[in-house]
Amino acid sequence: MRYEEYVKILAHDYMESGIVDVDGYPDIDLYIDQMVKCLNKELRLYGDGESGPVTKSMVSNYTKYKMIPRPAGKHYTKNHLILMTIVFYLKGCFSMEEIQRLMKPVLDNYTSEWDEPIDLSSMYAEITDIIHRAEADLPERMDAQIREIKRHLTKREAADDDTSELMMLITTLIMRSNAERFIAEKLLDEYFAGVKKSTKNTKKK
After folding, report:
1. pTM of the model
2. How many CB atoms lie under 10 A from the CB of residue 171?
3. Which of 15, 44, 181, 188 is the most buried (most CB within 10 A)?
4. What is the count of structural domains for the chain?
5. What are the pLDDT digits (tens) for 13-47?
6. Following DSSP, what letter does each residue of 40-81 receive, concatenated?
């Protein structure tokens, strides 16, 4: 398969199931096994084809390190599913300590007896709506980016060099994502400084 066709498939797959919607989660209490099964069903795109990307040990670790709330007894709620999903997306860019800093005010609110509770379902639904709109033209943008790379290579008579094309495509994708990651990291450092900042080499779980 040509890489151009594979990129189209990946873009389509991401649009279909890369952004987990809140409606996919049941509004009932779940045991940890049920929670993990539910998460892996919704996050299946990020698995390896045989097993899902979420394990019971991940849920336990994220609870231990105060990235998601503790269950009530042994029961996890829809809010746990939502917060676990947010942490899953964040862990690709942030260390555990950085996620702790970002999630601390949310967890403080979650356990508070005095503050007006954050409507996590509505907040997450709004997040995914923004992302759906922002990524609606993903297939077209990918196609345009590939054409632009081919145009540059043609200028120096290096057209149809798949290695160069793929190297440029992968690098430009990463550099574009780094621009937004840079802004996200600076916002975290500026406004969520309650926990000591970890080094960038902290191993992600």
Report:
1. 0.88
2. 11
3. 188
4. 1
5. 999 999 999 888 999 999 999 999 999 999 999 99
6. HHHTGGGS-SSS-S--HHHHHHHHHTTSSPPPBTTBB-HHHH
